[in-house]
Amino acid sequence: MSVTVAVDAGGADLGAAEVAAGAAIAAAAGVKVLLFGSAEEIGEVPDGVEVVDAPLSIAKDSDPVRAVRANPDSSIVRAARAVAAGDADALVSGGSTGAAVAAGLFNIKRGSGIYRPALAVPVPIPGAPVTIVDVGANVEVRSEHLVQFGFMGAALAQTVLGIERPRIGLLSNGGEENKGTPLVVETHALLAERLSAPGSPFTFVGNVEGNDLAAGTADVIVTDGFTGNVTLKLIEGVSQAILGAVRTAATSTPRAKAGGVLLRPALRAFRDEIDPEGPGGAYLLGLRRLGVVPHGRFTRYGFSQAILLAARGVSGDVVGRTHAALEAAGALRGRPEADAASGSAATVPSP
Amino acid sequence: MTREDVVSLIRAHLAEELELDPARIEESTRFKEDLEADSLDLFTLVQELEDSYGVTMSDAEAAKILSVGQAVDFVLAHTPTGS
Question: Is pTM beyond 0.90 here?
Fold first, then answer.
């Protein structure tokens, strides 16, 4: 089955041509790309990539919600509308995360039975990769939102990251089930209940503390968007600091430099393992179609990964899988009884 | 723009957003009690009304609108071409 991905080329630090180069890599792998951006900047593209001239970018606007509403011809809005109209199966946007969330919410809309969309980021921790959800779409949440975030993240881990039976952990300040804020305690009970059925596709491993996040205890870590955002940036900041310190130490003396040369092959593999471009970026979950938000500073490799992994998510039906798991667990948002009785079931659009 | 025009827009929007049968949305329909609409649903409805009719609705004004009919009243009272 051929998958088409709508890509917003506006807002990338290296320019629309770099995004186009990433699109070309993905097209060579069989993914069809609808590329929205300045045709002049994008230039020539190979077969499999179709350019839609949309030179207006709102990636730098400080009020993304206002910008999305006020600029229907912007590249991100046109790309989101292409997905909503069924011309593409998923959205990739390397510009502003806020604009991608707003454009996705207003145009692609929330999935059936979903309370809130969420942002999930696979963090490539060596030996123990973990996906954190939510990392910024929702600052204030209720327990039923967090439950759904867990299912969304687990379905993503299953389809895109290839984890057979993802383990969901709830971020808290203690391992015991009564540890944490009232919200966390309530969510713990709900997740334990919803994931207790023998046939559940996911597992709940309980609370996970901050220092266990990188221990491989869980594949998916659930938290509110504020905590998730702080956690993610803390990980990124500390990683950068450590890598910088290692680099400095490895070049500090001639002996250290000699050692660095010997270590280089092993470190190259290590560097690839922790490359943030590998996982493709942040995943916008909970909409009727999948969205991926690579970081604006990504190179063509990162953009190609975002497109390829978005396509994998479509092929693996991450949206349908999420819905099915939530429905089986009784964790979908309730619908008015009249419609439920009439059988006018809300369906998730098929890939 | 007539009252029925505004009702139709709101009906279509809610039917799309909440995946409901549009026939069950009337002026008397209450957003929360009858449709189980949440704050995000109401936020997107306000956006739709602002974009479609050029009205501006404050948070305080939005909080007072509890039904389809009240939303229609607001649009007609505040749009420059309301009738």
Answer: no
